[in-house]
Write a structure and sequence with these properties.
This protein is mainly alpha-helical. The protein is built from 4 helices and no strands. The longest helix is centred in the first third of the chain and has 27 residues.
Length: 106
């Protein structure tokens, strides 16, 4: 399926965001540790949310048609990953739970 470069940019960015967001949730779930999650902070919920995020990231990457626009797609993927890296690095998951009035893990 061939898309315009705009669709490649959109889906590659979403793949970077989703994949990078999934990693801390998945890892904390595997380690049996709590981590802020809008679905609940338990390790099981984080593991499942992380797994789903990785599946969605793979789906977005597959749909993005990266071979048609490799360099713009790679830049978009990197920008999405960087945005989520900054979000988590600035403790955005904890802030989001606070804003939604959800409990944060200790």
């Amino acid at each position: 399926m061939r898309f315009s470069m705009w669709f490649t940019l959109l889906f590659a960015t979403l793949a970077g965001v989703m994949g990078t967001n999934a990693l801390p949730h998945f890892v904390k779930g595997l380690l049996g540790e709590e981590f802020p999650n809008v679905l609940g902070n338990s390790p099981l919920r984080n593991a499942l949310a992380g797994w789903l995020g990785l599946v969605l990231a793979a789906g977005f990457a597959a749909v993005s048609d990266l071979p048609a626009h490799p360099w713009p797609g790679a830049v978009a993927l990197s920008v999405g990953a960087l945005a989520m890296t900054v979000f988590h690095g600035r403790r955005g998951a904890y802030r989001l739970n606070d804003a939604l009035r959800l409990p944060n893990p200790a």
